[in-house]
Amino acid sequence: MAYDPTDLRSTLPSAAATATPERFSGSEHVRLRDLAPAEKTGDVATWYARGQNFVVGYSDIDGTATFTRSRQPDEYVVLLADDALAAVVDAPGEQVSARGRTMLVVPPGDSTVTVTGTGRVLRLLTTRSEDVATLAANADSYAEPHENIPPFEPWPQPLGGYRVRAYDLTVPPLANPAFRLYRCTTFMVNFIDPKQGPRDPSKLSPHKHDDFEQCSIVLAGEYTHHIRWPWTTDKAQWRADEHETVLAPAVTVIPPPSLHTSEAIGAGANHLIDVFSPPRFDFSAMEGWVFNAADYPAPDAR
Question: Which stretches does the entry tag as region Disordered (predicted)?
């Protein structure tokens, strides 16, 4: 991995040495702007993309949208990505309101999320929610499980039990890297702030993950995802390097154990956020990195 020494990711605990796998799965680049929405009403258009363990629902809203879940099997996340949005979450025995850029964690079971305003709403659900998994534009790619990803296991239940939780996505981020990390039992979200102009190409951060996918969601601007796979003894399994450019909105799923980094190249505002399902152990092990760690205990150290 290659991080600038001033980047706190350079202090991440090193993963135990693992043998290079013999087989790899490819990346997923779902360019939502090029697709017809999977669902459309007068006020909302929604697209879906998926990874091995998760589904991203991306909605453009201009008015009112209602998202209802019945017998939801696990926690899911609603991200209000714009200041002009407001939401009310109704779950048994409680009602929670939020306004502006917010991460909402919705408990299992029955719930209704009503969003009003103009902007973008993201929903993050595990693939245990089969009704939305089948709507993903790249669902066929996961007809067979992708390589090198262990079976999904949720993290421990939150302290005090399941309930609706709201987290402010405008609080100051970490200093370097400028991350804003939250987790629940099913997801970790890194809601990075938008950046202006291209990324300095002399300060990229190529790195890899041995056993989980990274979902990078481009909310604004233009990015090039640089991805490189290891070589093995079997040349038939080699994959060419990728330098895939995507325009917002787009969902990219980066597979293990590829070496990767994302480069903002747009002249204006560029905004990318990262999602992991389940949460990351390495980020969670860093003191003070996960802003709501007190609500969601981590499993025993691996």
Answer: 1-24
- C-beta of residue 114 within 8 angstroms of C-beta of residue 87: yes
Give me the chain's average pLDDT, please: 95
Question: Does 212 map to a domain?
Answer: yes
CA pair distance 262, 74, nearest whole angstrom: 31
Joined together, the tokens standing for residue 177 give 């890297």
Element (H, E) at 99: strand 94-99
Predicted local distance difference test score (pLDDT) of residue 6:
75
Q: Residue 24 maps to which CATH number?
A: 2.60.120.10
Cβ proximity of 270 and 264 under 8 Å = yes
Q: How remote is the C-alpha of 296 from its chain's centroid?
A: 18
- Could you give the percent of the chain with pLDDT greater than 90? 90
Kindly list the distances between the CA atom of residue 182 and the CA atoms of 35, 87, 270, 275, 280, in Å, as whole numbers in the listed order.
30, 19, 21, 10, 11
Domain with 94, as residue range(s), is 20-284
Question: Could you tell me which of 281, 262, 43 has the C-alpha nearest to residue 150?
Answer: 281
Cis previous bond, 177, omega within 30: yes
Residue at 13 is within a domain:
no
CB neighbour list of residue 14: distance below 8 Å, 6 or more residues apart: none
